[in-house]
Amino acid sequence: MVRFKHRWVLLCLSFVLIPATAMTGGKNRYANGHIDVKMVKVKGYDTPKAVVKAMINAPPEKVWPLIDRCQDYEKTMLRTSSAKLLKKSGSTKVCEIEVDMPFPLDNLKSVTKATHKAGPKEWSRKWTLVRGDYSVNTGAWILTPFNEAGTQTMVHYEILAEPHTSIPDWVKEKAQESALPKLIKHLRSQVE
């Protein structure tokens, strides 16, 4: 019985002594600029979904216009060669985006329908494909306050985009793994 009590006390103490970063899933690594990129297999699709998490050292209200204004994506997003807002109705926006592809591939165009939500606890843009050069193009930008003061933003970005163009899987994955951290760094440079 005495051994059991000692183990119980040690177990209780371990919860008190474990650093806060271990209990919060490593939140400090985001504070230090870390960018998580994960490729997730999705049943029924050859292309994996890319999921990115990172912190931007600016409040969500300052980051949000970069996400909200699809017509400005030529300036605010990487590899966007043209961007137009085709229609807006309440919180729904229909946008036409052309993505610049490396030679010898043709650029990829899409028209997407997105639902926008502007705070106060979450700012999000969630879209689906209407038409274009893809069999699927769905995703989301989700911004939430990173710290209690609301001066930093936790960014969650996910995209499942499978173009009609034949591109080897390893090329798609490599492109997303290198391009997505660059995208986050580009957004940071515009608001920090």
Task: List the SSEs and their pairings.
Layout: H1 2-17, H2 20-23, H3 27-31, E1 36-40, E2 49-56, H4 60-68, H5 73-76, E3 80-89, E4 92-99, E5 108-118, E6 123-132, E7 134-145, E8 153-163, H6 169-191
Antiparallel strand pairs: 1-2, 2-8, 3-4, 4-5, 5-6, 6-7, 7-8
Low-confidence stretches: 1-24
Give me the strand/helix succession: HHHEEHHEEEEEEH
The biggest sheet, with number of strands, parallel, antiparallel or mixed sense and barrel status, is: 8 strands, antiparallel
The coarse silhouette is globular
Tell me the CATH superfamily of the largest domain.
START domain
Describe the 3D structure.
It is a single chain. With 192 residues, the chain is an alpha+beta fold. The protein has two domains: 1-25; 33-191, START domain (Alpha-D-Glucose-1,6-Bisphosphate, Chain A, domain 4, 2-Layer Sandwich). The protein contains six helices and eight strands; from the N terminus they run H-H-H-E-E-H-H-E-E-E-E-E-E-H. It has helices spanning 2-17, 20-23, 27-31, 60-68, 73-76, 169-191; strands at 36-40, 49-56, 80-89, 92-99, 108-118, 123-132, 134-145, 153-163. The longest helix has 23 residues, at 169-191. The N and C termini lie far apart (58 Å).
